[in-house]
């Protein structure tokens, strides 16, 4: 078949035009209104979805359609079938886990990133994506007063990971390979990782992935005597013991704002222990890092100058839509040595001449979205002063809630509040066998199944604890007041029924 | 300080309201118009950004602003400072690497996902996100005629990974841990991985991460005698050799549509070798998987019934904005055994009762976006018939381009075209020392720096090859014709200058 015949074959076919600018305009305007209306009505939904497992399979067909359907029919299905199965993280009555902030600026950044839809694995595939990321992470690093070694002018720099899980994994790999290059790769089974028992499960998962032997993961006990922070003496003793039996301590992860109770590990003292022992020191400030943009909170990361890597989640409490997890390292080459590949099909002059950053070598995946746009938009459209007041407002609301709990003698605040999380519980009647754990679990179930608020829980020193985490962008004082009334009413009902 | 005082303190502060539904509506409508206008003018930009390394640092301030700025000032900066640094993957004149499709439907799905902004790590955190993902991956699995074991009704199922890199990593980990549970974890150094030398670098990176020893990664030679497909005999011999020296073969990755030349490994024969030897068999159809929704192309994945896992990128050639990389496995428990954690703060009744899927245990990160929305929208707003015609159109355009190359005797087509990639090169004058490699590199530089089109390259059997990959959603026949004229003109100029 000659060229001209093929030519005709191409022309004859009635071909889908999936990216028509005017159709995009028309349909996306509709979607904007749909989303804006969602936010207007968000308080009408139960915060925690009340559907049963398997609900959606009964509502959708068994296979994809052969013919196109209209946008309206899809939006109708979103309203009728999808939204009832959504747990509304952006509801002002969402107080579970930690927040995952949306904002107008973050949303606009997501839109623009999806609009440009480029894949920024190497500098050449969109120089702006790489360079804006470097610049904005320098901005944020300066705002947090991170030491200069974490900024891009030296040997370090920042990179946006998807999540804190990926952040701790990439630095664990960098640390693993750094020590294995020195002692030989068959020493993997001797490598030891340290953290408190309050560290996030992401560390355990990173160890599983990296092949660290589970029996070499030192999960050091932290208790109420230190408000669940890791004691540097405990760390020091564990390291000495491991060295004495021929093991190789190589990685410490400390947390600023633990998931259970926002405990703050003492970075300076821990960092000195790590440094003495040649251990990579990672700081996980996934939640509380955002708070440290306020001068009055900056002291919580004092000692970060001892760290090799520092991570916070802009998608938690910094108004940047999920996902956006900035990570800073002092030695970018350690990351690159673990994570780089250099296949022929990706070679290009700028990369080969070592003139540019190729972020593919700082992360697990190859492809990457233009995530710095949304962080840049948040910083510019709000400005640091507003962002500081945003954080302070949530901390004040948490103080207010803590005060409410303290005034009701049926409850106790379990650990001192540090940021915007209040850990509390309903006190059980005397001689309750399990110390009130079932009572509090029942209280959690009752408030969550009311649909009025959504909270989550933890266990500290064997006690089942309710976590009230303030940080959704729409939460105002009235929501906190109303939430407290839900707790009081459900507690009264439960106590009556005993 | 009592509750009432705190109350006042909260009220007094002038607090940012970052998620106001009417501001979202107003600003997002502006952003829609900005993006629609971008698509209207996309052909006015050089496809490959022509900026110099470091260009953006000169244009932006050194630190984040204290005060808020207007959306208009940010959009002005996007136009003046960001877009010149963008390489326009959605341009109809983009023919590099593989495509990364945007579409109206994919874009709407991204918008909605960013609007809801929930984090679906466990079923309870948004049942709809988990359930829609399972359903849509069953739809797509049926469309591809994957064996039933890959669907969710049995022991297997689908999950959306961010990228093919993460897909191959999670199955490599599952396979690693499955064999180590059997033979003991100190056997890591004996594990052997197999692929052809045409496999994507993501496999090498996954091995680095998983701690597979580099000398145990068998990169088996594939050459023009098999059109760069892996020969099952070569595999068989390598496995036998490794077993004879006490090593443990455990993982094979085959590719349907290799990155360099879209070679297709013979799945059926390779799968039988894998099965005989108890090896996990992964199929990477990142690029070409999409083409297999057309009945006439389905045979390229014949033999997938022998595989343990199968992956394609919906974000490449399936109109689903980046990132969206569906992975199917036959044994979901193998994934879960490698990747699950179960911290107290994530426990909930549905998960504890084992009634639901928690996708956090099928992937590297904990958090995850509502990515199934965009794939669902693509399938519904276009329908399978349109999606098939979309694929066929690109394949026809590639045939057309191949015909153009074949008609110009100064060029050669290097490998037979299979899908929508044409591998070709300019023939050098006789007795050119390097066989024409520099000539073709110069041709690539010339066409790319013209800004008119963007292509990339590879090396096959020592020859530098130009890759012309058709698949951008806006590409029409006229763009292909014009692109060919760019090659011809630049080739004439180069040959004249010799």
Automatic annotation (TrEMBL), chains A, B:
Keyword Lyase in record: yes
Protein name: Tyrosine decarboxylase 1
Domain of life: Eukaryota
Record GO terms (molecular function): carboxy-lyase activity; pyridoxal phosphate binding
Modified residues (N6-(pyridoxal phosphate)lysine): 316
Keyword Lyase: yes
Co-factor(s): pyridoxal 5'-phosphate
Signal peptide, first to last residue: none
Family (UniProt): Belongs to the group II decarboxylase family.
Pfam families: Pyridoxal_deC (PF00282)
Keywords assigned by UniProt, alphabetized: Decarboxylase, Lyase, Pyridoxal phosphate
